Amino acid sequence: xxxxxxxxxxxxxxxxxxxxxxxxxxxxxxxxxxxxxxxxxxxxxxxxxxxxxxxxxxxxxxxxxxxxxxxxxxxxxxxxxxxxxxxxxxxxxxxxxxxxxxxxxxxxxxxxxxxxxxxxxxxxxxxxxxxxxxxxxxxxxxxxxxxxxxxxxxxx
Length: 156
Prior knowledge:
Number of domains: 1
Number of helices: 4
Radius of gyration: 16 Å
CATH architecture: 3-Layer(aba) Sandwich
Low-confidence stretches: none
Largest sheet: 5 strands, parallel
CATH topology: Rossmann fold
Oligomer: single chain
């Protein structure tokens, strides 16, 4: 298996700044850039169903929202692929659904990257308004490869 750099993105400004570092490192190491956008499975729990008239209405709404979230994720992944293409870095991109920390850990375990690049968790708005939510201390206990956090940028 070729060497890989794993970049987890959420499309935030910190994530986009971290993308540049991930691409530079992949280019320097002649590694594949593996880009993952995580749709946290918790979004489904954010929807109250009291206002929905029926279960079919709720399911239709959830399907509509999931399609929108997936399209947004694919757009963010395509932007990263285009950026990596400028430096001729080979890129693999995918959208994964699950608990953020579990998806990160499982992906690291599966591809065994040289480096894990993450957006800075302190550069996004709290709760559902922002990007990825994860506990960096918890991740560092489970993940053995080096971790690079994107820059801490002011919250807009």
